[in-house]
Amino acid sequence: MKQKKRFSAFIMMVLAFTVVLAACSSNNNGKTTETPSSKPSNTSPQEEAGSGDIVPFGEQPLEFSLYSNYDFSTPIGYGDDVTSKWMKETMKLNLIEIGSNGNAKQKFGTMMAANELPDAIMMDRGSPEYNTMVKNKLLVPLDEYYEKYPTLRNLIDDSTFNMLKHEDGHIYVIPNWFDSEKNPYKYSNTGWTVNRKIYKELGEPALATFEDLYAYLKQVKSKYPDVVPLETGITMNGVNMLFKLFYTGYGENRTIWNIGDIPRFPNTATSTMESIFNDSAYKEAFVWMNKLYREGLITQDMFTQKQEQVVEKLNSGRLAMTGFSNITGQGITANNILKASDPDAGYDYIPFLAAPEVDVDSVNPHTFGTLGWNVNVITSTAKEPERIFQFFDWFAGAEGQRLNSFGPPGVLYDEVDENGAPIDNERAKTISAEEKANLKLGIFNPEGSWMFYVIGHHKNAQNPETANWGNEASEFFGKYAKVNTDQFNNMVIDPKSDTGIVQEQIKQMWFEYNAKLIFAKSDQEFESTFEKLQTGVNKLGYDKVLEAYTKVWQANLELMK
Amino acid sequence: MKQAGAVKGKQTESALHRFAAQWEVQSMIWPGILFILVFSYVPMWGIILAFKEYDIFEGVLKSPWVGWKQFRLFFESPDLVMVIRNTIVIALLKLFIIFPAPIVLALMLNEVKHMAFKRIVQTLTYLPHFISWIIVSGLVFSILSVDSGSLNLLLQKLGIIKHGVNWLSFPEYFYGILITSGLWKEIGFSSIIYLAAIVGVNPHLYEAASIDGAGRIRKIFSVTLPTIAPVITIFLILNIGNLLSAGFEDILAMTNNGNNAILRNVSQVIDTYVYTIGLNQQRYSYAIAVGLFKAVINIMLLWGANKLARKVGGSSLW
């Protein structure tokens, strides 16, 4: 009997132990929920602003952590390249980069659950992550700082500033790569390029329409068996940029923006978001993709290849044409590498191609928006939110934006001209392409403002011969921007709501069918797949999602008035 | 009351004394008990979240109750049939190919008389076990890629195919690739346990069989296999109990973290589905409900398999 007693004592002990552990974990949970409310974040800036004695950025050491909420974000190794090394040594900024490990949503969820927020986050404006953080007072309102430090405020248009505010009237974000009505130079990182050498060897045939393209790719394939005729790049969320380029080749209001995770067609006459299936160009574009895929004229493993594989092909000159995003950024490195061994090699940007019988002038694939690509936010865990804001404010100005593409002073320039553009020094004139590539200019860019475009333009204008290829290409592609997308801001549905669940199911279906349509082995298979996609998403409730988008759109139009 | 009987007559001895006397044995069992408690039992209370709409900021206790809503959503989901079908297909493929393969390898290795050769084969087959799936998938991708992938180059040089085949973009090849790579990775390591069991077979049985005129094959079927049958049964029961855990790392790695759209229809299994929905779409409660559903089925399968094993062969887990 004693044994039995001991056994039950053992069980009791185990239970007690479990309770203790459980209590520990619920304590932690209590902390998670209480920290933000016990320290109301919207009072901290006033306190700090009141204390006053903040010195200009760069005079005193500053350290903060920055997390970029994107799958593709990987730490650059802060302090390793010439620019961030200068930031670290001269401006006394120690930035702790937090990587997403290739899975931003998971990383974000883990940091939230563990209550280990970074000091600053780069994320999508109006994303569910942003909204939940505002709701739970995890972000620092920046209203006071914007008043105190004028660089950013002067660069941001008033209407843009209003759009960036949260519904509660406060502003929590610092727009990244934002634009302005005042900026005469638009930039865009996506467009078509050709391999200069191959194009020359094939006699530089005309490349204006998809038919020209097709004929050219066939020529490449027959003469250069080891070259990929047209590179699609990697697939982002199931959609190819190349597909978007085909779609936008049909002109009018067909922009890259229309083809998101859930494609839609904005009817600007009625301000309603309509079904993409009403637009015949949508199917036509897939017909092109399917045709080129079946004939082996575009990347055959577009859904499985990794970014490194694309970069390797690009840098070794094994692509005859490209049609993917950020070619302006990656093309600089590729051109530098190729030029190092052969002065005639490299990639050239070309005008956007048009579908047959479509007016080339009506093709305007790019959109512009003053709101920018995304935002930087400062979290309530930041110890010195004001000084972090001060850094972003400084970086958005001419000095910071110059760093973005030209590196720190004393490397390739010592002085700047009257427009703020750096003037090449001796080293800049003699540096080899390879050596320049090793400087890794442009990889450190935590914040972009339109000053970047202004400086870039003036730098290129100094001497067309030494112009930066990426800037030139970006300015060239940027000319094709007609539709203002500020009106489409915040088109996000809560994933847990009924419409949100439908949206997610539709997204998944589209994700799958984008690939199936491109890979269809025959015309019949293509037709039936397209049919299935259309009936499938309609059945799931595509119209409900479009309705929700329309609501947001119309509300935005109200806000912009 | 078995234990009570075993210690009869030592009642004067205190529990502490006995514990001290057995410390070697106790120190072996306690880390295991602690591990199970901390990582399997303590987190179990999180199951209540399957009946709630978990809000990461509200916390577990404050999130609102929603009853069976998450389960209903799963059963009404258009993904249900696809996910269950893939799970069962992959699980059965693994059960019928990956489970028996190491047994065959162990039996074959046992017949090898050349010790050096046997050791080399053993080492080479179990080394891949220590390579992570990410690296294995990287190897597979580069072997199978269209642009200078070695398999395509080989087949092209041999004149079997004219153009490179994009192996990973055909759903019909996926199971083959998944099972082959899984087999390559785990066959050697899994065979260790069976080799150990075979070593334990009483040599007299082989002698007796030889006297009776049994050949090598006869001995495998009449001596080796029946003797290691209990080990096989136990592993079979455990495997069946985990049937719905059809795979996770391997599938995610092989599908580019689920980004290979063309394979989604054949590769999405319950575990990857829970991961996609829960962590990527942050619908935690829904994911927990799906996970709980899987766990319940697994428990039923384990119990059923155990019962069947006891009835048929006599050896079982409990």
What is the average per-residue confidence, as pLDDT of chain A, rounded to a whole number? 86
Largest interface: A-B, 54 and 45 residues
How many domains of chain B? The number is: 1
Beta-strand segment tally of chain B:
0
Give me the CATH fold name of the largest domain in chain A. D-Maltodextrin-Binding Protein, domain 2
In the CATH classification, which architecture of the largest domain in chain A applies? 3-Layer(aba) Sandwich
Number of helices of chain A: 23
What is the structure about, briefly put?
The complex is a heterodimer of chains A (561) and B (318). With 561 residues, chain A is an alpha/beta fold.
Q: How are the SSEs ordered, and which strands pair?
A:
The complex is a heterodimer of chains A (561) and B (318).
Chain A: H1 2-38, H2 44-51, E1 62-68, H3 82-89, E2 93-98, H4 104-113, E3 120-123, H5 128-135, H6 143-148, H7 150-155, H8 158-164, E4 173-176, E5 193-195, H9 196-201, H10 210-223, E6 228-231, H11 241-248, E7 265-267, E8 272-274, H12 280-294, H13 307-315, E9 319-322, H14 327-341, E10 347-349, E11 366-368, E12 374-378, H15 385-396, H16 398-406, E13 413-416, E14 422-424, H17 426-430, H18 433-439, H19 451-462, H20 469-478, E15 481-484, H21 498-519, H22 523-540, H23 542-560
Parallel strand pairs in A: 1-2, 1-3, 6-9, 11-15
Antiparallel strand pairs in A: 3-12, 4-12, 5-9, 5-10, 7-8, 13-14
Helix pairs in contact in A: 11-12, 12-21, 14-18, 14-20, 16-19, 21-22, 21-23
Chain B: H1 2-6, H2 15-21, H3 23-41, H4 59-62, H5 69-76, H6 80-98, H7 101-111, H8 115-126, H9 133-144, H10 150-157, H11 171-199, H12 203-211, H13 216-241, H14 249-254, H15 264-267, H16 270-280, H17 284-312
